[in-house]
Design brief:
By secondary structure, this protein is mainly alpha-helical. It folds into three domains: about 20-145, MgtE N-terminal domain-like (MgtE N-terminal fold, Alpha Horseshoe), CATH 1.25.60.10; about 160-280, CBS-domain; about 290-460, SLC41 divalent cation transporters, integral membrane domain (Tetracycline Repressor, domain 2, Orthogonal Bundle), CATH 1.10.357. About 65% of the residues lie in helices and about 5% in strands.
Length: about 450
């Protein structure tokens, strides 16, 4: 079942909505006043992606009320546009029959994603509702590990043989009557189905009909193994401006392809992932999820940060006597740690992005380190002068001002080195630097900042 996006109709009593933000306000008003007919008319004007956006912007209670008004013929398409958390919560809240009905008509990749997310009971019910052939396709896709090319690929493709002439291919295409979506080239295989390259449609239409495919095909066309991580797939689409990417098995036989539509969503997710993980959040964090659910998901990383905070506090405790004698140090020491943390986060973010895009290699790591150290020295000296002058005007003690400036330079240097080194080390160890890098960095900059500032004050001012 294909979801047809509705067109605005002047026959409806409800005028078309020109700005979706205004429509969201109207939806909330109609829901509050239980104006079902007007809501139904609004929904008919929306595309599936707009309905999904509206659902994501609602509280859980309003979502369920609104979902009841979404026509069954459109529910599958809307579900594919929702984030994982919102979609799973919505499906699990429905009775089993309605939840299964809402998935009818989904493409195999989308259906596999949904089945993998929901409860075991709904998982089995959806599978049992499928025709034998569709069930085999879905189970086959679910057999691949998560976050690999096999989970994203579609099996609809058009493959031609390298030993055929162009006129034969043209006759075949005319008989076939259509091309797979996003087709700018035809996949070329040998008799055993091994991927050999691509034949651009432009060449098929413009070159000598008697020429063979093998004479014109692009043998340098890139393909990926079915188990290739999705992060590498996203990188290839960005770097090579691909429209479709062939997927092959371990024997290099063509088994599917990943198209631009799916890659765009993948690239967006890969772009957001590092920033969310650095904050200890999930990719599809539901902004309006129930309080208890959101609190539970964030509890772990807050606990990790608490441990590092106690470590920094322990360092401060070593200089308790110094702080009692020179109260100004307690006022100024957060500045050192804060500046180091911000500078380190800048380097860390760039390093994680560079790793994700494969911009950091063995050949440029040394240069990057020298660059970050140079930047730290320049920024450290500039801001050391600024905060040193402010501290002198504030407390009138040149010794404290000098120590504050030196400690800031030291901490910014440590932040630059660690901001680059931590993600590289974690990546080499097979750990995700976006998930734990910021926690380690914060600990380092706090400890180095407090230790250098309070340590020098103890040595030179007491």
């Amino acid at each position: 079942m294909v979801d047809k996006e509705p067109e605005s109709s002047t026959s409806n009593s409800q005028a078309p909505i020109s700005h979706f933000e205004d429509a969201l306000s109207q939806i909330q008003e109609f829901l509050k006043e239980a104006r079902v007919e007007e809501l139904s008319q609004l929904i008919e004007q929306f595309k599936a992606s707009e309905i999904a956006s509206a659902i994501s912007a609602m509280t859980v209670v309003d979502r369920h009320r609104f979902w009841e008004l979404v026509p069954e013929r459109r529910q599958a398409k809307v579900l594919t546009k929702l984030g994982e958390q919102v979609r799973t919560e919505l499906l699990d809240s429905l009775n089993l029959e309605d939840a299964v009905a809402a998935t009818i008509g989904m493409d195999t990749p989308d259906l596999a994603d949904v089945i993998d997310e929901v409860s075991d009971e709904l998982h089995d019910a959806i599978l049992n509702s499928l025709a034998a052939g569709d069930r085999v396709l879905v189970e086959n896709r679910l057999s691949y590990p998560e976050e690999c090319a096999g989970r994203l690929m579609e099996r609809e493709l058009l493959a031609i043989r390298a030993d055929k002439r162009l006129d034969v291919i043209k006759r075949y295409l005319r008989q076939r009557g259509s091309l797979p979506r996003r087709s700018t080239a035809l996949m070329v295989v040998d008799r055993k189905g091994v991927f050999l390259g691509k034949l651009p449609l432009e060449l098929l239409l413009t070159k000598d009909p008697d020429a063979k495919v093998s004479e014109l095909m692009d043998v340098s066309a890139v393909s990926v193994n079915i188990l290739t991580p999705l992060s590498e797939v996203a990188n290839l689409f960005q770097r090579l401006d691909l429209v479709a990417l062939p997927v092959v098995d371990d024997d290099q036989r063509l088994v599917g392809r990943i198209v631009l539509d799916d890659a765009i969503e993948l690239i967006r997710a890969e772009t957001e992932k590092p920033m969310l993980q650095m904050a200890g959040l999930e990719e599809d964090e539901d902004l309006l999820a129930p309080i208890a659910d959101s609190a539970k998901r964030r509890l772990f990383w807050l606990g990790i940060n608490l441990i590092t905070a106690f470590l920094a506090a322990a360092v401060i405790g070593l200089f308790e006597a110094t702080l009692e004698k020179i109260v100004a140090l307690a006022v100024l020491m957060p500045i050192v740690a804060s500046m180091g943390g911000i500078a380190g986060s800048q380097t860390l973010t760039l390093a994680i992005r560079g790793l994700a895009l494969d911009h950091i290699t063995d050949s440029n790591r040394r240069w990057l380190l020298l660059k970050e150290v140079a930047i730290a020295v320049i920024n450290g000296l500039v801001w050391a002068v600024v905060v040193g002058v402010i501290a002198w005007l504030w407390f009138g003690q040149i010794g404290i001002s000098l120590i504050l400036g030196v400690a800031m330079v030291i901490n910014l240097l440590a932040a630059a080195v660690c901001g680059l080194a931590i993600p590289l080390i974690l990546d080499r160890l097979g750990q995700d630097p976006a998930l734990s890098g910021s926690v380690v960095l914060t600990t380092v900059t706090d400890v180095v900042g407090f230790m250098s500032f309070l340590g020098m004050a103890t040595l030179f001012l007491l």
